[in-house]
Automatic annotation (TrEMBL), chain A:
Residues 96-457 form the Solute-binding protein family domain. InterPro entries: Peptide/Ni-bd, SBP_5, SBP_5_CS, SBP_5_dom. Coiled coil: none annotated. This is ABC transporter substrate-binding protein. It comes from the Bacteria. It comes from Pseudodesulfovibrio alkaliphilus. One of its GO terms (biological process) is peptide transport. Keywords: Signal, Transport. CDD domains: PBP2_NikA_DppA_OppA_like_2 (cd08498). It holds the Pfam family SBP_bac_5. GO terms for molecular function: peptide transmembrane transporter activity. SUPFAM superfamilies: Periplasmic binding protein-like II.
UniProtKB/TrEMBL annotation, chain B:
Keywords: Cell membrane, Membrane, Transmembrane, Transmembrane helix, Transport. PROSITE patterns: ABC_TM1. It comes from Pseudodesulfovibrio alkaliphilus. PANTHER family: ABC TRANSPORTER PERMEASE PROTEIN, DIPEPTIDE TRANSPORT SYSTEM PERMEASE PROTEIN DPPB-RELATED. It holds the Pfam family BPD_transp_1_N. Its main location: membrane. GO terms for biological process: transmembrane transport. This is ABC transporter permease subunit. It is found in: Cell membrane. CDD domains: TM_PBP2. GO terms for cellular component: plasma membrane. Gene3D superfamilies: MetI-like (1.10.3720.10).
Amino acid sequence: MKLLPKKSASTFSLFIVATALCAMLLAGCGNDQPKEQAQQAAPEAPAAPQKVTLKLAIDADPVSLDPHVQLSGGMLQLSHMVFDPLVRYDSKDMHFVPRLAERWERIDDLTMRFFLRKGVKFHSGNEFTAEDVAFTLERLKKSEDYKGLFEPFVSANIVDPYTIDLITAKPYGLVLNMATYIFPMDKQFYTGTDDKGLEKDRIVKTDYSFANENESGTGPFAVTSREQGVRTVFTRFADYWDKSGNVDEIILTPIKNDATRVAALLSGDVDFILPVPPQDLDRIGNTQGLKLITMSGTRIITMQLNGERNPALKDPKVRLAMDYAYDNHGVVEKIMNNFATAAGQMSPDGYMGHNPELTPRFDMEKAQALMAESSFPNGFEATMIAPNNRYVNDAKIAEAFVSMMSRLNIKISLKTMPKAQYWDEFDAQVADIQMIGWHADTEDSGNFYEFLSMCRNAETGYGQYNSGNYCNPRVDELTLAAQTETDLDKRAAMLQEVEKIQYDEAGYIPLHWQNLSWASKSNMNTEEIVNVMDFPYFGDLIVE
Amino acid sequence: MFAFAIKRILQAVIVMLIISFIGFAIKHNFGDPVRDLVGQRVTPAERAEIRQKLGLNDPFMIQYVRFLGAAVQGDLGQSYFFKRPASEVIIKKAPATLELVFCASLIIVLLSVPLGIYAAIRPKTLFSRFIMSGSIVGVSMPVFLTAILLIYIFSVELKWLPSFGRGETVLLFGWWDTGLLTVDGLLHLIMPSIALSSIMLPLFIRLIRSEMMEVLESEYVKYAWAKGLKPRRVWWVHAFKNTLLPVITVGGVQLGIMVAFTILTETVFQWQGMGSMFIESVERSDTSLMVAYLVFVGFVFVLVNTAVDIIYGLVNPTVRVAGRK
């Protein structure tokens, strides 16, 4: 009696095991059958193509969905996904390629005619026409961030629904550069009032506006969900005219922390990151299945020497001596981990003003000789400020600069500070030597000179960031003349002459151009979509 | 009792005034938020105009009084980056932080109590020594380093756990975005909770151990042993219950420190809570969100402390006597 329950239990469990085995066998057979069927069926009717999703991590979230609310790298990256410009830069070199404008021609000195692509639709379903371009230009001229760039433009004349003339007040050589900023917005969608009774086309920086939260562009992707700072989902716009890419969905997550962003890529949680922190370049480059792409960038980092504050810095020989004493290549190698390009001028390679003869000069003997000849053979004291969270390794570079100058007996007292405090001090010119980095938003050399090297003029705004108070009338003359020169060869010669003048006079001390970097899984044509402006053309991305 | 409560509330109001004043003073001296709102090309004149519109050109006291007036009505200002009221942004981000703090506290309670008691009862065993030396490592390792190490081991090398973010969340009651109800959300919680608990856990183990050892030496425990009670009853009922009081008091204080440590943890894990929001507001010079967060956190602390004090007063009249002096 006592044994019976145990026995029955064991037979019961045996039964269960047997049933389970049978079930597994059956299931196994069952599994095999459909597989075979699928294999047979495959050639006749291919399975629906899988949805391609790109998980993207960027260091910062775009501030808004309104492309005109701020002129910044993040906003332009967004604009290239959601909107689409009239023309854009080729990703190989800096040539213009057609987008919404199929072709263009100069009618006269003041007029450039754009022939627009036909059959282009906005995300709202509206048809894209010349009306939208005119509307967008009007809005750009109202935007605080863009109106400076679009000041040369007087109006947009609609010739017919697919032809528009952009008219400038004076001859202007950068019409196409500016056309890369014209991302047509849907006039019909952004006109009228929203449900709060506010104008839909208002440009608002710090508060709600319709355009900050809704979008209708003609770009490759439409925004389907957005939680600011957390996650934005972009879905392929079915009616997009350009079919070169194959990504159906992009999930954008901002990941601020450098190490986390890299870890997310290494662990496979994201597919594409930008930028790659310099300390992790080797690691990503050496990881199988990942692809690292770097290129020389266009942001110049310089030191401005204020001769008005410190008489020693007015001495041309002292300035030259300091330039000779700064080891551009050494800093690039040791502090920037080779992740920068040593600079001898402002214009990077590819810019019109780039003068290939002007290479970085480092010659300590010559520097010391020049110093000995100057009016300050025994050196002098100076003050200096630099930011410590604005440019890559900014504070370290500033320290290196200080120690290099000490070899000329120039004693520099350096103060570094966060960018939130830095710019007020910079404007107030609190120090003799000040650091600044600059990216030309026109992608043109003239922009560097207008802001950094022209004589300071409060009325015109020229030389606004020239805290060294460098002033050479010839530089001003050439820069202004280049603004209205439409013959591009002549223009290039003028701009290159400016670089030469500044080089010979050591108008400032150029340090380097910051490099750019992207990393992705290796099954993508990443190298074809990234460019020196750092707006990857995700619409063209192909994931294998 | 009523007088005590009134007095305590008055004190709380004064503390809030001081916190808001300090927060606002930081904001005022932090730098120009407009620089982060505009491109490099915007002229000084236009920037001045934006500052004027945002009311940043007014004297400090006028801005502060205006801020106070609005704050009393629950308006903590406008976040420049999020382009909506700061209080709304903070409340939206609060659940993420609270869930993280909750999970980390759970880990701390569940591990520190048994480990601390064991180390007190059997101080000489190998395991106790291991716990104690391990806790020294834990205390001395910075949170962000622990976090990065966790990510590299479990996400990059082993690929077991997701490396960042909150994963899939479910919306509860229309405002509570919770990650506690999905598998994905729970997986995302594991590493940040461990990282966040890594500082407090060793501290609590050591605290419970030392308190417990002290109690075990006391007369009434010796008396309990002499009575011939079972060890389990002596340890749990007589000793541990009395260990708990100081631990809870310290725990309350440490909870505040934990909220501060969420800032580091959240930044490393890209955890979308109040901590990473605060860091981002500092980096983006979103000064009004920054000050709103300081005031909000200060308010929560003052509220909790005041409530605790009043409850203490109700429970233990000697506190009231001490308060009266």
